[in-house]
Known about the structure:
This protein is α+β, with helices and mostly antiparallel strands. The protein has helices at residues 2-8, 51-66, 76-81, 88-113, 116-133, 139-150, 176-191; strands at residues 13-17, 24-28, 34-44, 155-159, 164-172, 196-200. It has a single domain (2-200), classed as GHMP kinase, C-terminal domain (Alpha-Beta Plaits). Helices cover 48% and strands 19% of the residues. The longest helix is centred in the middle third of the chain and has 26 residues, at 88-113. It starts with a helix and ends in an 11-residue tail after the last strand. The model has no long low-confidence stretch (mean pLDDT 94).
Amino acid sequence: MDQFASVMGKKDHLMRLDCRSMEFEYFPFKPEGLSLVLIDSRVKHELADSPYNKRRASCERVAKRLGIETLRDADMAMLDAVKTDITAEDYFRAKFVIEEKDRVLKVCEALVAGDYDTVGRCMYETHNGLSKDYEVSCVELDFLNDIARECGVTGSRIMGGGFGGCTINLVKNELLPSFIETAKTRFNEKYGHEPKVYEVIISDGAHKVTE
């Protein structure tokens, strides 16, 4: 997905990629009065095993129990119908995937409508799902997410693979300086180093530059 976005990215647009068919669609992203900011925790947790392989195995077990190839073809009613037949861990892994699929579609509709409050709420819901159901967050990222909520940030979520790394934040411009200062100060007080802050500008993907 990273490589696809790097090549096919489009200025002022977000992209929805269907990883089964490889079809993709652009959605406008021009949030007036809002900025995107990446907060890098500068934390990287070493993983002794392959946690994503375990999560994939969970999802594959649930899909097999449902008689489908992948969870993209499932809904919560189907999952709840087999809840007593699967482990709690597998249930919550699948729950996140199904709910996230629906959130992606909801966010796409919100982008077309210019409804960035809904986009922001979905970002928080995604972070909560990644933290509680899929369990790929960490205390440092959850701390940054909590700070964002307390500062009135419109939306905040894990960016990337989790277990360290960054949060992506959709912030009203008037709140931006105080949010950045609060995040730096409180994170430094708790973890002994400041996070790095990067302004995010969505631009065109890789292309030949001609003079």
